[in-house]
Design a protein that fits this description.
Layout (H helix, E strand, L loop, with lengths): L1 E7 L6 E6 L3 E6 L3 E6 L11 E2 L5 E6 L5 E6 L3 E6 L5 E6 L6 E6 L5 E6 L3 E6 L4 E7 L5 E6 L5 E6 L4 E5 L4 E5 L7 E6 L4 E2 L6 E9 L4 E10 L2 E10 L6 E6 L5 E6 L4 E5 L4 E6 L6 E6 L5 E6 L4 E6 L39 H10 L6 H6 L4 H6 L2 H6 L6 H16 L22 E3 L5 E3 H10 L17 E2 L1 H13 L1
Antiparallel strand pairs: 1-29, 2-3, 3-4, 4-5, 6-7, 7-8, 8-9, 10-11, 11-12, 12-13, 14-15, 15-16, 16-17, 18-20, 19-20, 20-21, 21-22, 23-24, 24-25, 25-26, 27-28, 28-29, 30-31, 30-32
């Protein structure tokens, strides 16, 4: 379920772009300004709005670390703003002084690319702010650009309707002519790097949209440093007019798009299934973006508003936990005939459930002690030798050891019984609580992969290849699926 949680009405003209960092939401407009909000409570920051452009601002994007915000404008500049203070840190003047329509950071923050109305491209060294090289496609306007997750290439889209793949030497590796009839409007790479275990080839997924009213999902295969190919996977026709924007979720499982028909559509990206159609804007939907850290979507429109939507996770309130709580992993209850809760997860047991378990394990003498100390399933799984002695005052060494042994059996027994493989952490082989996506494209329990990265020299647990980055992306879609599965048990 997707629900509208806030409408921001601060811009005075068309909203052209929305962008999230881990903690901020930025929007830009034809009113020449950018506005910056906290993504936690959607309050506008004290230094907002940002006023430095002389004409309409077409695009904005955050640097990978979120410390800088880039914006490009008809005034032929790309401006770099500090997200801490709102100050201008650099102004990059596009070669030829043509209006800049699009800008994008590389995932490693080494490069920034900008594209202009005269078909020219500028590749900048981000650290030195110096122009490295330029490229061009004649008789067209650059209106779309996205870096691949490996940072070695980027794709551009133009009003001519073609998609072009470029490397960092500004060489064209591939041109997909007539990718969208009448023109491309937006393109966006999914953040995951996929590898073919047989050939070793690297694959990426790319979403594009255009004036033909379609959203397309492509597979881009990097064959060698000098070549690649594109293959169309899905052509999505969920909207009835030109589609102006599209964006993958951080886990690559969902895709959102905005259209001239005033709708926002949300798709399941792997199969191309239409999940939701949202009808809250009054004019063309020109911008859309997923938050990388929360189940939020921002959409901007020519109605001058930005809508922020929450993607509900389907979990009941008793299954929601504070992000900062340190709770043990979820374990499956062994296949026993306990009253009313034979299918609950042990971490969800009530105090009565724990009492029933104690009786079945021949530990009736401890029922009163556990009740007095309000031991539920979460507390049970967290018990240690010290807590049994110091907090529960169980003096018998034999009894303490028996309790610990039974708890360990509870954790281990049937942990994988009936659980879909994709819900289990490849490292821990346990049901995931906080799944995240690593640079190898696989999902892991956050604690497990963080520990692995600290001790295994940044190699992938699945492929044994070096991880391109240690950045971990919350897999909200998988977390929602695990919640739905747990509720069904």
């Amino acid at each position: 379920m997707v629900s509208l949680i806030c409408t921001l009405q601060d811009h005075l003209d068309d909203v052209n772009c929305c962008a999230f960092s881990a903690t901020l939401l930025a929007t830009c407009s034809a009113d020449k300004t950018l506005r910056v909000y906290s993504s936690r409570d959607l309050s506008e920051l004290p230094y907002s709005p940002l006023s430095g452009h002389g004409y309409a601002v077409h695009r904005c994007c955050f640097s990978p670390c979120g410390r800088l915000l880039a914006s490009c404008s008809t005034d032929a500049t790309t401006v770099l703003w500090s997200t801490g203070s709102g100050d201008i840190e650099a102004v990059l003047e596009h070669p030829g002084r043509s209006p800049v329509r699009v800008c994008a950071f590389s995932p490693d923050a080494e490069h920034l690319v900008s594209g202009a109305s005269d078909g020219t491209l500028a590749l900048w060294d981000f650290r030195s702010r110096k122009l490295l090289r330029t490229g061009a496609v004649t008789d067209t306007t650059m209106v779309a650009c996205s870096f691949s997750p490996c940072g070695r290439l980027f794709v551009t889209g133009s009003t001519y309707g073609d998609l072009r793949v470029w490397n960092l030497d500004m060489q064209q590796l591939h041109a997909e002519k007539n990718a969208h009839d009448l023109g491309v409007t937006c393109c966006h790479f999914a953040p995951q790097i996929l590898r073919d275990s047989g050939s070793g080839a690297v694959h990426f997924r790319l979403a594009t949209c255009g004036q033909d009213s379609l959203v397309k999902i492509w597979t881009l295969c990097l064959l060698s440093p000098a070549g690649c190919k594109m293959k169309l996977q899905h052509a999505l026709s969920g909207q009835s007019a030109p589609v102006l924007s599209c964006s993958f979720s951080a886990d690559g499982q969902m895709l959102v798009s905005g259209s001239v028909d005033k709708t926002v559509t949300v798709y399941e990206a792997n199969q191309g299934t239409l999940l939701y159609t949202l009808h809250q804007h009054d004019r063309y939907v020109t911008a859309c973006a997923f938050s990388p850290m929360a189940p939020l979507i921002a959409t901007g429109s020519m109605d001058k508003t930005v809508n922020v939507w929450r993607v509900e996770d389907g979990c009941s309130s008793r299954l929601r936990r504070n992000e900062d709580e340190q709770t043990p992993p979820f374990y499956l209850l062994p296949d026993r005939k306990l009253p009313c809760h034979s299918k609950l997860l042990a971490s969800d047991w009530s105090e009565e459930d724990v009492s029933s378990w104690l009786r079945e394990e021949g530990l009736e003498a401890l029922v009163g002690v556990f009740k007095e100390n309000n031991i539920d399933g979460t507390e049970l799984l967290a018990l240690s030798k010290d807590s049994l002695l110091d907090e529960l005052k169980i003096d018998s060494v034999g009894l303490r050891n028996k309790v610990l042994r039974k708890i360990e059996e509870l954790k281990m027994a049937s942990v994988c019984t009936g659980v879909p493989d994709e819900f289990l952490c490849p490292i821990m082989h346990e049901l995931m609580k906080e799944p995240v996506i690593a640079a190898d494209g696989f999902s892991y329990e956050r604690e497990a992969i963080e520990s692995w990265i600290r001790t295994k020299s940044r190699s992938s647990p699945m492929t044994n290849l070096p991880l391109q980055t240690t950045l971990l992306t919350p897999n909200h879609t998988l977390k929602m699926a695990i919640c739905r599965w747990r509720n069904s048990q």
